[in-house]
Amino acid sequence: MMDRILTNKWSVRIISLIFAAILFTSVTSATGNNSLTTTEGVYVDVINNVPVEVYYDKDNMNVTGVPDTVDVTVSGSKGLVQLAKTQANLIAYIDLTNAKVGTQSVKIEIKGLSDRLKGTVNPPTAKVTLAEKVTKKYSVEVELNKSVIADGYEAGSIKTDPKKVSITGSKEILDQIAYVKATVSNEKDQTSDFTTKATISAFDVNLNKLDVEIDPEEVEVTVPVSKIGKTVPLRFQQSGNPADKTVTITSITSEDEKVTVIGSEADD
C-alpha cells in the first residue's frame, strides 16, 4: 500500500505540500517574528503600520471609513525584503478619483515596492463612504478646565470671537454633531479677567470626537473673573465703652469702604 502511494506522482506532491506546511509553522514558531524563509529560498516578512493615503476631490467631497494604516506582507529575496522594511518608501493608497457617491468596498493598493518583490495588503479592502461636502454654521460652547479659575473665584459670562464657526463634512456626519466646544486648559489659577485662544472640536451626543473640517480651528475666548461673594459697604457701630473713662470715641473710620462677603447660598 505504501509503495503504491509513493509511486503515485500526485500522492508525492500532496505529501510534499503537507511537509512544507509543517515546516512553515515550525519555522514561524521558532523565530518568534513575522519573517520566514521558505524551502524555495523566498524570504517573507511583514511591514506593519504602513500609512494609507486616499485620492479624491478634496474640495467638494468628504470621505470616511479609510483606515489610518495597514500591514503589508512582502516576499522575495531576503536582501530586497529587508531593504524595503528599513526604507520608508512603501505607501498604501485608495484611489477614489472616479468613484461614485455612496458607501462601497474598495481595494487598497500599494506603491513604492520593488518590482522584484510581491506585496499583499492586510486588510486588502476598506468600506468607505464618499459624500458631497456640506458646510453649516455652529455656535461655540466654551468649557473651562477646573484648574483655570483659582479657588474663591468664578467665571462670568464668557465670550468668543467669532461666536460661530463653519463646519464642513458629509451630511451624515454633520447630522451627528451635538456639541461644538472650545476647551480652555492652558491657563491656571486665574484671579482676574483674561483672554486666550482655544481649539474647537465637534462631538456627537456620546462625546465622541467627529472627523470634520472646522473654520476657524481656534477662537479667541474672553473670560471675566470675579471673587465669589457679595460686595457690601463697610459701616461701624460702637458696642460698649472704653475702660478708660477719660477716653471718648467720636468716630470710627477705615481705609476700606467696602468688603466682599463669601458664604454658601444657605447662609443668605
UniProtKB/TrEMBL annotation:
<dbReference type="InterPro" id="IPR053154">
    <property type="entry name" value="c-di-AMP_regulator"/>
</dbReference>
<keyword id="KW-0732">Signal</keyword>
<feature type="signal peptide">
    <location>
        <begin position="1"/>
        <end position="30"/>
    </location>
</feature>
<dbReference type="InterPro" id="IPR012505">
    <property type="entry name" value="YbbR"/>
</dbReference>
<dbReference type="Pfam" id="PF07949">
    <property type="entry name" value="YbbR"/>
</dbReference>
<protein>
    <recommendedName>
        <fullName>YbbR family protein</fullName>
    </recommendedName>
</protein>
